[in-house]
Design brief:
This protein is α/β, with parallel strands linked by helices. Helices cover 51% and strands 13% of the residues. It has a domain of 124 residues: P-loop containing nucleotide triphosphate hydrolases (Rossmann fold). Helix 7 links the parallel strand 3 and strand 4.
Length: 194
Amino acid sequence: MPHLIHQQYIIQFKLEEQSAIGDKQLNVLKELSWIEENFALIMMGPPGVGKTHLSTGLGIHAVNQGYQVSFVSMDQLLYILKTREYISKSRTRYKRITTSGLIIIDDIMYMAYEPQDAQLFFQFIYDMYDKTAFILTSNTGPAEWGKFLGDTTLTTAILDRLLHRSEIITFDENQDSIRMKYRRALFQETGVES
């Protein structure tokens, strides 16, 4: 059954609706050798263009191939990092994340973070560097991350580790949201109009 879920994600990811990757690049990503090499895939672009869809599809594919994968939003990750010392659920989730072969962090750097959050994120990246592969999705490019973390030195140290072995996949800034293109409305579907 999980294989069918993966196929559905890949089929639903319409390559023709974006210009970030083509068939050849998608096939290379599906080979998963980048996980063994602890690569970071950084997917950048506006909301609704397919970053999370593609990262989830690759994550499911990796699970089907026997990898342990963790998917977490940046906010969830920071909460786990802050509370793992005194909340057992956070401690358990942290252990699962840090033993994963692939960590997918969704929506990084979309808001300003407190200095202690930036420190926690740096420590996490530092601890996991060379031990796991990452997929990071972001509405902004790495060059802008410093303004969200508020510390250029810290940002440089994070980027040094993440970009060492990485592929940056840039979704077109002018691309319309795929979500909005296929938006559904309750009243239209039930035939009730205002």
